[in-house]
Design a protein that fits this description.
This protein has 571 residues and is α/β, with parallel strands linked by helices. 47% of the residues lie in helices and 18% in strands. The protein folds into 3 domains: 4-241, Spore Coat Polysaccharide Biosynthesis Protein SpsA, Chain A (Alpha-Beta Complex); 253-351, no CATH class; 361-560, no CATH class. Helix 1 (17-24) links the parallel strand 1 and strand 2 (31-36). It is elongated, with a radius of gyration of 30 Å.
Length: 571
């Protein structure tokens, strides 16, 4: 049953409220006005409105408690009267009430949703208020780990009363122990965040908002900004302590939606990256490191498939390397957590390297002479790495800045087209000045081969990964033993080196301590020759050699190999 009403909190807006009621009348909606301890003149105006308009009900609060307190009383009363939804509007006439049908339609089509006004301001809006909204919006994104709430301060909105009343009547938010729900100007953003935490979908409706000249405002610059700041402190703290429960509710809602899963996954990853970048920029690494613990804990516990695949990989390492000191017992959930956490830390390092941020790490160089000698030949080479450790450390801190004469060496990244497009979009977000060239290929053809040949002849490097078979690989892979079981590895780097007639070097960047990276360079193949007669067998010899090198590192640093899927599934 869809049975909406209007709730209007009021404190001394005697001149604006008659105009607001006149504009609402055309929609034949019951209207609950909550008089929040107004002066005598306003009380008289309200009594007159009740007498002349049968759809108006007046609720008196004898003492002014703030906008939030008035709205809470109005919403509770509306729920007790059997209404399903309540449209909240301000009494000063700022809101474009002609948009009420839009809110009603959105609520009727999505009865569980919280419908929020997305204000469109004209020149009448004070600049200070606009800047304040941006600050609040930033913190709201942190508190909700999403951008679903596009504006949390607009007082023009529609509440689904069943979920809202349940929240308002919860002892958790009304007791004197713990966090109390905001009672003043902090109410609007806080109730929106908490309803989203409960799993309610959010719908935003664009609506014009106008500030009237000499209009009465109850916003107190210092007092209300202090309240809102304290509200954000409460919400962020509570978000960290209750993150698994919050994320469970969000996931529960999202799983019930018809939106394509892959689309939501990409959107979620983009939002997460935006939040991560924002927190890094403003608060730095310590806060992000703190937030990682509950976030990773949630993903470890909620994603059974990935958890089991990580555990399976770690068990293979433990079986293959019996002398490994990383596992005193069979790998369990605590080891999976460490695996996830190491990956998150490596990702943060990459972001800061890409941003050209100064990182205070000690670098131990092993075997870089082979790269120096290659640079002196003025011909390039293929750099073969893996989803292991942090190979970007080398490119960001040394190789990409190494000079031969007056010429700076260049590292080109070889990626499949889909990955290249996503990587380029990410780099534009992190660092618009990122100038490393991306060579995107789906299948090796004459054009792409010529492009890469030019790179090699100009003394440039082509970097690629050798431990992940792409979906569209056309069976260009070899099956070899890895950590005791058969697995597939791509042939691309080997075939490319034979075509370009250039050497291959293996490079790894391993974090050996919390502030130390070991940068490892090894000659792999000086001249790759693939005879036509035994081509597959020849390629397999190189792949086996690469797999053995990767095995050694995985046994030494098992938590730093980041292929979170069933790597041993033979296609």
């Amino acid at each position: 049953m869809f049975k909406p009403c209007v709730v209007i909190p009021i404190h001394n807006h005697k001149d604006g409220i008659p105009k607001v009621i006149a504009r609402i009348e055309q929609y034949a909606l019951p209207c609950l006005i909550v008089n929040d301890g107004s002066d005598q003149a306003t009380c008289e105006t309200l009594e007159q409105l009740v007498t002349t308009h049968s759809f108006v009900t007046l609720i008196h609060r004898h003492q002014n408690g703030g906008k939030g307190a008035a709205v809470i009383d109005g919403l509770k009363q509306a729920a007790s009267l059997g209404y399903s939804h309540a449209i909240q509007v301000d009494a000063d006439g700022q809101h474009q009430l002609n948009d009420i049908p839009k809110f009603l339609q959105a609520a009727k089509s999505n009865p569980q949703a919280l419908v929020l006004g997305l204000p469109e301001f004209d020149d009448s809006a004070p600049k200070g208020r606009l800047y304040g909204r941006k600050i609040t919006q930033f913190f709201i994104r942190i508190e909700t780990l999403s951008s679903e709430i596009q504006d949390a301060l607009c007082g023009f909105r529609c509440y689904p009363l069943q979920a809202t009343a349940k929240l308002l009547n919860s002892k958790r938010f009304t007791s004197k122990i713990g966090f109390n729900l905001g009672q003043k100007m902090d109410f609007d953003p806080e109730i929106a965040v908490r309803l989203l935490w409960l799993g309610l979908p959010i719908i935003s409706i664009k609506t014009a908002v106008k500030y009237h000249h000499n209009g009465l405002s109850h916003f107190h610059l210092f007092e209300d900004n202090a309240l809102i700041s304290w509200m954000h402190t409460r919400l962020i703290t509570e978000m960290l302590f209750h993150l698994p429960w919050i994320l469970f509710n969000r996931k529960k809602y999202q799983n019930n939606q018809s939106q394509d899963w892959h689309t939501k996954k990409e959107r979620g990853a983009k939002i997460a990256m935006q939040l991560l970048l924002s927190i890094l920029k403003i608060s730095g690494r310590p806060l992000v490191n703190f937030i990682l613990y509950p976030v990773i804990g949630y993903f470890v516990l909620s994603d059974k498939k990935r958890r089991n695949e990580s555990k399976d990989y770690l068990q293979k390492v433990a079986n293959f390397c019996p002398d490994n000191t990383h596992f005193t017992s069979s790998p369990g959930t605590q080891h999976v957590f460490k695996h996830y956490y190491q990956f998150a830390q490596s990702t943060l390092d990459r972001i800061q390297f890409w941003q050209n941020k100064k990182i205070d790490y000690k670098l131990n160089w092993h075997g870089f002479d082979c790269i120096s000698q290659q640079l002196e030949t003025h011909r390039g080479a293929i750099l073969l790495s893996a989803h292991l450790g942090n190979v970007e450390m080398m490119r960001a801190l040394h190789i990409n800045k190494y000079k031969v004469g007056n010429k700076k060496s260049v590292v080109n990244l070889l990626m499949y087209t889909e990955h290249a497009q996503k990587f380029n979009a990410l780099m534009q977000q992190i660092n618009p000045d990122f100038d490393t060239k991306i060579i995107s290929v789906d299948n090796l053809n004459i054009q792409s081969a010529m492009e890469m040949s030019d790179c090699i002849e100009q003394g440039e490097f082509i970097a690629t990964m050798g431990d992940r078979v792409p979906v569209s690989s056309d069976n260009r892979n070899s099956q070899v033993n890895f950590l005791g079981q058969p697995a597939l590895f791509p042939q691309g780097a080997i075939i490319l080196a034979s075509i370009l007639r250039c050497p291959i070097y293996i490079i790894f960047g391993i974090q050996t301590k919390h502030d130390t990276y070991d940068l490892i360079f090894k000659p792999f193949a000086d001249d790759v020759k693939l005879p036509r007669k035994n081509r597959e067998e020849a390629i397999k010899v190189y792949i086996e050699k690469y797999a053995q090198e990767l095995e050694k590192i995985c046994c030494q640093y098992p938590y730093q190999w980041y292929n979170f899927y069933d790597f041993w599934k033979l296609k």
